[in-house]
Amino acid sequence: MQSASTKARFPIHGFIGAAIIIAAEALLFTGNQIVGHWFTPIVWTGYILLLDALVHKVKGRSLLVNDRLEFLLVAIISIASWWLFELYNAPRFWKSNLELWWHYHNLEPNLWIRRIGYDWAFATITPALLETADLFRATICKSERAAGWLRLSRSILVIPIFIGMVGVIAPLVWPNEWLAPVIWLSFILLVDPLNALRGSESIVGDLARGDWRRLLALLASGFVCGFLWEFWNYWASAKWTYTVPYFGNIKIFEMPVLGYFGFPPFAVECWVIYIFVRSLLQTNKRTLGSEMFLHTS
């Protein structure tokens, strides 16, 4: 068991992360083109370092201090997950450069260097969401669990799995701007019940115990990270914009206002995908997700 002094320690990489964010902001607004083009992965690397240090200070344990290999796995899953979502954004990428919902601008012309930028930025997505959720879970989402109320049988869980499967397939078969919300909900309906059936950590399992803490932490994480994504993206040189068919002109930064409702479920989606992939790599039914991220006990 760690001592209170160890738990209170703020690791040095937290100061480095804060310095990276401040320096990146300063260089961006002084017109530094290198930082401007690489701003997203740079600033989010700083954010992850800072959040991990805060998690360690609050909990006495964090990925970058106690389990760096697990952090590397989270980053790899993050890259793979976002390339999957890119497939949905450009479902006919083998025929054209169609981008349905989000569009990239001022990217590095060298395709090999651009790929490094893509993967670096994509590698920060799930770690940022899970570190933020872990901090929420350890602070404001600490209320005791109540009596369970949502107990679904194994046969009932087939229903959301089927709905999720339809939602996952439909946007690929019928690419359409109006189906954007489907992507941020379908993988939750498909994967989370599968996690429950496999005996892994799941939102379904939490709610069956009356425990809302993980879900609330993830939703809050999605909102915070979503706002920061759009805030930092707005002034970057290499950036993204959106095509949203409903109220697309009412924006906060580059994101139409209604689009912000997609960030909270996106955080849940990233977590359930992480748990599912991690469980496939485990020989037993417990995942490291239950130990390192948002432990329910």
Account of the protein in words:
The protein has a two-stranded antiparallel sheet with strand order 1-2. The protein contains 14 helices and four strands. It has one domain. A hairpin with a 2-residue loop joins strand 3 and strand 4. With 297 residues, it is mainly α. 64% of the residues lie in helices and 4% in strands. The longest helix is centred in the C-terminal third of the chain and has 23 residues. It is globular, with a radius of gyration of 19 Å. Helix 4 runs parallel beside helix 7, helix 4 runs parallel beside helix 8 and helix 8 crosses helix 12.
The pLDDT mean sits at 86
Radius of gyration, Cα only, in angstroms? 19 Å
Give the strand order, joined by hyphens, for the main sheet. 1-2
Number of helices: 14
By DSSP, the count of extended strands is: 4
* Sheet/helix structural class: mainly alpha
Straight-line N-to-C gap: 16 Å
Characterize the main sheet. 2 strands, antiparallel
H/E element order: HHHHHHEHHHHHHEEEHH
